[in-house]
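Give me structure tokens for this 139-residue protein.
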Amino acid sequence: MAAIALITAANVALRYLTDVSIAFTEEYSVALMVIVALLGTSLAMAGGRHIRIGYLVDGLPPPWRRRAEMAAMALAVLCFGLIAGYGALLAWDEYRFEVLSSGLGNPQWLYTGWLPLLSLAVIGRAVGRMVRLARGRDG
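Here you go.
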């Protein structure tokens, strides 16, 4: 997050002072933001701090709340499994066809390769939380 803030601030200051833009800042900022978002999602899954709508679930008895949380984790595994699978296919296609990024001309798979890898981290955290919930250790 600090790297994103630093390169964006440098680009804004340089553009303001000289009317020249640092071309790489946008490309790297977007890639870093995806990485930060997926790492944050992974941490949220592990700690049970993911986004939820508690209106219906909060009124349930504790065993049913745990089941609802486990169902949410199962759906998250399914969702991020799809992201990991299709993200891996996308990264492979970009590698195979030698797709270059539009801004700097870097291989695009260097950016998209993080998507399936970090999606697997989210899946691992969600499965770990499901196991803890099934054992009654996390509530």
